[in-house]
Write a structure and sequence with these properties.
alpha/beta, four-stranded parallel sheet, 21 strands, 31% helix, globular
């Protein structure tokens, strides 16, 4: 996900730590997915007559694998289709010829504690996490901020010039005065649904047409262009924000309200392990299937290949054609791939969705994103410069081509990795025509201007690995980011799992995935929409939840997202 500035003063942070932990609990749909998952009654059941019923799950990313796993536990038979590899944008790769334990996260690499539904599955499969070295984070040895050719070395915010504290204060003030930040965080922490809805309803109506940059400009606290420029280039938390300035301010508020940019952790060994372990996992409690059943065993080892066609056929069935030419028909399907695939890579009937939903899919706005990693012999950046006593190299934020540079290690005597550059939008497009080695050369030149005495190249022990998500044929972008005026479109997509009001010939296929969620770019959104789709399939097939553990569809009328007028 794009970096988001930390939105609290030190005093506010101390106060927040004394309150209940925050979760991605709203504000659009304040449903406790973590409680739903933790309840001993489980997620629900379908009639025994439906056991073994096949359900197509299109996309083997985190959302698809979570949906398939939970449907399997209910006694259904998920049939997973995957065009590339299990994991989606949880993509962990190695370096050719290097220690297999040395990996690079090409997609999601840092996860906040507020991702509580995501964390449920991390704990379920026994993955270990550790603090992620964001700029100025407590576990980050040092940070260098380099703007307009001037570098500042810091181990905490207090080490930076006063203008950076002014910018942080301006952002805090802007959030408080323009978005009731403290009140909303209190409501989210205590899960006070009436308060959440009262605050958010007013803000959605007021701010749906506002850009992030316009929101800053409307605040007297950000009257200074210099402050807005520094905020855009550096920000607070994990980096700068200027690539998100054209996006809806509602997108930004969803993230800062829910602490999505706070206290990030990485997954030891790589995030792709999560969907892979769920694919292999044999649940202790599952209906219909014999003990020892897993998604892998149901598929004979591998998922079905890419979907090339989706059509409605007699009896309101969903008929799926895959790349092998195989045609199968299902009573229910879950579509978790990026929604633009429905416009380009997959031949679809218009009758799959209502026209308003097609419009919302077409209007979805995706952000570009690029990364490049190199393997190095050891974490040499921790060596002290004998002249200055400082770290040889630091986590780096700059206005140069690299923008964000991250230093990742597994200990002082082990090979390590450097993410030489992590960029978004226009900054990502600048890299698009270049090969991995060409990108590396430009990045090393930029970093050489920040660290003139450091020979990074001599530590590189293998070839670079890179990704530009906008150039990936099954993604065409990194993640959704709503533009002003897109709230209504996002509401249509998120609420699609509620189908009782749809005509019979528009039911049975359920949208899920992080771009369907309110918090796209965060794995939590992928999990939440997967659980919505699981509830939708269960309901569609005549099933229900336990009364003691109502699902998202059972309580929908009480917490439905704000409905704005269409005229």
């Amino acid at each position: 996900m794009t970096s988001v500035p930390t939105a609290v003063h030190d005093e506010q942070h101390i106060e927040a730590q004394a309150q209940p932990p925050i979760t991605m609990f709203g504000p659009d749909f304040p449903y406790a997915y973590d409680d739903f998952l933790a309840h001993p009654a489980g997620l629900g059941s379908v009639p025994a007559t439906e056991h073994g019923t096949e359900v197509a799950v299109i996309g083997g990313g985190l959302s698809g694998i979570v949906a398939a796993y939970e449907l399997m536990k209910m006694g259904l038979k998920p049939v997973v289709y995957e065009a590339d590899r299990i994991g989606g944008r949880l993509r962990t790769v190695g370096f050719d010829g290097c220690d297999p334990a040395l990996t690079a996260e090409m997609g999601a690499m840092r996860f906040p504690p507020s991702s509580t539904a995501f964390q449920h599955y991390v704990d379920l499969v026994g993955l270990e996490t550790r603090p992620f070295p964001n700029p100025l984070a407590p576990g980050t040895p040092s940070t260098v901020v380099d703007l307009k050719g001037e570098s500042h070395y810091a181990t905490s915010l207090e080490d930076l010039p006063d203008v950076y504290r002014q910018v942080m204060h301006a952002w805090n003030t802007c959030l408080e005065e323009g978005a009731d930040f403290a009140a909303m965080q209190r409501a989210l922490r205590t899960r006070d649904i009436p308060a959440i809805r009262a605050i958010w309803s007013a803000l959605v109506e007021k701010l749906d047409s506002q850009t992030f940059y316009g929101f800053l400009c409307d605040s007297p606290a950000f009257a200074s262009f210099r402050h807005r420029e520094i905020f855009g280039q550096v920000g607070f938390g994990t980096g700068g924000w200027d690539t998100d300035f054209p996006n809806s301010i509602l997108e930004i508020l969803r993230v800062v309200y829910t602490g999505a940019d706070d206290d990030h952790r990485g997954i030891v060994g790589g995030s792709q392990q999560l969907p892979l372990r769920l694919w292999e996992r044999e649940p202790d409690k599952l209906l219909h299937w014999p003990r020892g059943t897993s998604l892998r065993s149901l598929h004979g080892g591998d998922p079905r290949p890419a979907v090339t066609g989706l059509h409605r056929t007699a009896g309101n069935r969903i008929t799926v054609t895959d790349a092998s030419g195989d045609i199968r028909t299902y009573r229910a399907a879950v579509f978790t791939a990026q929604s633009w695939m429905l416009l380009s890579k997959i031949a679809c009937d218009d009758s799959l969705f209502p026209i308003d939903h097609w419009t919302a899919i077409e209007r979805t706005h995706y952000m570009e994103s690029s990364k490049l990693f190199v393997p190095v012999d050891r974490p040499f950046w921790l060596d002290q410069d004998p002249r200055t006593g400082r770290d040889t190299m630091s986590m780096t934020l700059t206005d140069r081509m690299t923008r964000g540079t991250y230093l990742l290690d597994d200990g002082p005597d082990r090979p390590a990795a450097i993410c030489l550059s992590y960029t978004w939008c226009d900054d990502s497009l600048k890299w698009l025509p270049l090969s991995a080695h060409e990108r590396m050369e430009v990045m090393l030149k930029s970093l050489g201007e920040i660290y003139p005495g450091v020979d990074i190249r001599k530590h590189i022990i293998g070839n670079p690995v890179t990704v530009s998500w906008e150039n990936e044929p099954y993604f065409m972008g990194a993640f959704k980011a709503n533009l002003p005026g897109h709230y209504r479109y996002q509401r249509r997509l998120f609420t699609h799992f509620m189908q009782d009001a749809l005509p019979a010939d528009k039911r049975g296929i359920f949208l899920a995935g992080d771009d369907i969620s309110w918090t796209a770019g965060w794995a939590e959104g992928a999990v939440q929409t997967a659980l919505n789709a699981v509830w939708g399939v269960m309901h569609h097939l005549g099933g229900s939840t336990d009364p003691l553990n109502p699902g998202p569809g059972d309580v929908y009328d009480e917490i439905a997202p704000v409905l704005l007028p269409e005229d």
